[in-house]
Amino acid sequence: MALVILSGFPCSGKTTRAHQIKEMLESKLAQDANDHVAMRKVAIINNELLGVTRSAYDESKSEKVARASLLSHTIRKLSKDHIVICDGMNYIKGFRYQLYCAAREAGVRTCTVHIANLPANCLAYNATLPQDSCYKEETIQNLFSRYEEPNSSVRWDSPLIVFPWCDSLVSTKGVGLTNDCVRGLAHNLEGLRVLGNDGEEVDSSVKPCPKGSNTSQKSVLPDQLAAQCENVNSTLKEEKSWSRIAEDLWTAVTKGDLKPVHAAVKTATPTSTNFLHILEITTSSVLSSLLSAVNDSPTRCGAVSFACVLPNSGKSCIFSINIPMGKTINVGVLQRLKRQYTTMHKQANAAGRGTSTNDEDGIAESFLKYVQGAI
User: Fold this and answer.
1) How many Å apart are CA 68 and CA 46, to the nearest integer?
2) Whole-number pLDDT of residue 100
3) Phi/psi of residue 161, each to 5°?
4) Which superfamily does CATH assign the domain made up of 2-171+241-255 to?
């Protein structure tokens, strides 16, 4: 049905979001009036389920094995009756593209969810984990630097839904800003400096305006910053509530665009072992019978009916074709049309797009339709 690809920094809260998304989707499915939709399942695939520890990211070799395991288990779970949540960092855009191609090949929708969080928060949470289940300092810093953020302008990351790190998402009420979020927001407010009443900088994490910058940028006091944060908080409550995010996600996995399978990853149509042989002898038999009927016709035009014995089955069939007035039908014309027809089907068969069957009746009728259209 759909693949939900989670992406974010290590220790950014992806698993928490994954379970919240799973709970929301299961609730939506249960409420659907369509019994077939209600029977669909939601599954989470993550490193914890696969037994992959955080130490796997210490070395590139073990990390590749971990990613391959996540990819293979996710692909095996994709089906028309499952919503699969791939709960991992998925920080490499090439890996997200692999997941996108796998979903497209399986005929399911895709949606990317970016768990937006600050590195400082991720480091703080990682520090609270037991020694044997946390990231090493150099490992997590390396993952931060290599993270490739999802981009809604590329097809494999679209549609993109961003979960703000500062909301609780515990209920369906609006998103609120915590004190930490306010400080993070202050750090990222472009062109603002937070100054105390004495004009000194009150937070070392808030950098002053660089020298030579636009002098029209304003400095604000803490009270002014609090008022601005409150305005932003109101905007988040109005525009980024959990109910709206949930509705956007539900729409993406149930009504989003279903991308067609690319020819490079499309499964080839099964081919009969003697299809090309039957194609050749059937068209040759039809050509000979048609040429004989045309030569025996007094006018050599108009409706011409003829009998043809199919060479493989020995079945006798009656076919007809309408030859326009003044159109010359001879062996050269029919041989040229036969070569075009067989070449076209051989190429389609090699590319896995042909209808490779042993149905002689179907081949004969198809060939005559091709001849009729050509003359």
Assistant:
1) 12
2) 92
3) -120, 130
4) P-loop containing nucleotide triphosphate hydrolases (3.40.50.300)
